[in-house]
Amino acid sequence: MDQKTSTLSRRAFGRGAAAAASSVFGFQFIPSRAWGQLEKPALAGIGSGGKGRADLLGSENAGCQVAALADVVDATRLSTTDKRLRSVAEMRDRYSQVPFYRDYREMLADMGDKIDAVTVSTPDHHHFHAAYFAMKAGKHVYCQKPLTHGLWEARKLAELAAETGVKTQMGNQAHAQDHMRRCVELIRAGVVGKVLEIHAWTNRPIWPQGFAQRPAPEPVPDWMDWEQWIGPAPFVEYSPLIAPFAWRGWWDYGCGALGDMACHIMDMGWWAMMPDAPLSVSAEQSGGTELSPPISSKITWQFGPGEYGSSRGFKFHWYDGYTQAHFDPDTWALVKESEDYNHPDERVLEGESFKNFGSVIVGEFGKLFFNRTRQAWVLKSTYKVDGFQWPEPSIPRAREQDNYLEWIDAIEGRVQRGQSDFSHAGPFTETILLGTLAQRLPGEVLEWDAPNLAIKGRPELASWIHREYRPGWEIQA
């Protein structure tokens, strides 16, 4: 099958009502490869502020042509000077000639074959629906981390990506860095021996988290579509202490520090091991409530034996949050009494500063300290490293170490796949989101039944694994 035929067959998912509506913009927007003549994929951005801005510009620099925007914030109505909303206004001005939508479902239906790909840069609770509808319409998808808000959702997006054949990528940008890929190769080659444990840590959360009561409702600003912002999640009245910027600290909309940072910081260790699903997970936490993730936590996943781990399996440890902090309801903020945040103990660190690194791989005869933002890593080993055979590179390198370029290269057929596509990001996100489940049940060891997406002996937790969506947002999958 040639490229043109393949592209059109993928797009067939999005036909129907969209085909009739597409002629409205036919004079202005041409599908990037509709006649096999143009090279730039036509891109629609779902979410245009904050990470949306970065994703739009990153994709445009990688070779996309922005053809549509969807955002719950209508920048033409903004009167605020809040610097955090400036990026929304900037993107609306930059792409003022493209159609703008508040509802991405309407955008996908209207634009039809006029778009080839989408970026999903929304709060976590919209990731699944936006990516699902886009893939069902045959569009390539770049989705911010964590891939989804819920466990079932992560499984379904990985399955749908395989079914549709669209090219996907999750936005954990350091995955494209050469130094991460080299460390993965070294660990797999045995530079520290069989892996016994992995530790990863962050200072997040630095946003409001750990509150026990909802704030008083306020009038919805005329520039925000609150119904669309809530989308599939449980409805609450509007408050600026929820959106557009504080949603990570709400269980209904975000996944706390773990969801925000683990897809970055746990990535190298998990990728090096490529483990089967964890056997169990447990957590300690401080400050968590029914509404909000904890102020700090420690989580442990137990994995079984694998190719790169010990015969007894290995443990993955996660640490987040400031150890001396509390939520202040008067200022609606986290108040830190010290700058010390959760991290491994001296047995693990062996004199290395936890502030210089984000993870460490502990093997039978050595340790590898890693920071995704630094090109250098630290290897501590024994005499057994003397005979180590340094491996040749085996993981394809991303062009210019850029995960947007890697995604576009996959779309255009220059590489087979992006290395953080949904076949990788789906199982990885499942593992991480098991940790959010453990945070809500501190002190309990939860045994994971991966084939059935269930906690063994705990059927009452099913609604946390696959939650019910609001009317109008149901997914039949």
Characteristic key phrases:
disordered N terminus, globular, nine-stranded mixed β-sheet, alpha/beta, Dihydrodipicolinate Reductase, domain 2, 29% helix, 477 residues, Rossmann fold, 15 helices
Reconstruct the topology from this structure.
Layout (H helix, E strand, L loop, with lengths): L2 H9 L5 H5 L20 E5 L4 H12 L2 E6 L15 H9 L5 E2 L2 H8 L5 E4 L3 H13 L3 E4 L7 H14 L3 E3 L7 H12 L5 E8 L23 H5 L25 H10 L1 H7 L6 E7 L9 E8 L10 E7 L4 E4 L4 E4 L9 H4 L9 E5 L2 E5 L7 E4 L21 H9 L10 H18 L6 E4 L4 E2 L6 H4 L12
Parallel strand pairs: 1-2, 1-4, 2-3, 4-5, 5-6, 7-10
Antiparallel strand pairs: 7-13, 8-9, 8-16, 9-10, 11-12, 13-14, 14-15, 16-17
Helix pairs in contact: 6-7, 7-14, 8-11, 10-14
Structure description:
- There is one protein chain.
- The protein is built from 15 helices and 17 strands.
- The strands form 3 sheets. It has a 9-stranded mixed sheet with strand order 15-14-13-7-10-9-8-16-17, covered by helices on one side.
- It has 2 domains: 3-174, NAD(P)-binding Rossmann-like Domain (Rossmann fold, 3-Layer(aba) Sandwich), CATH 3.40.50; 176-398 and 419-465, Dihydrodipicolinate Reductase, domain 2, CATH 3.30.360.
- It is of the alpha/beta class and 477 residues long.
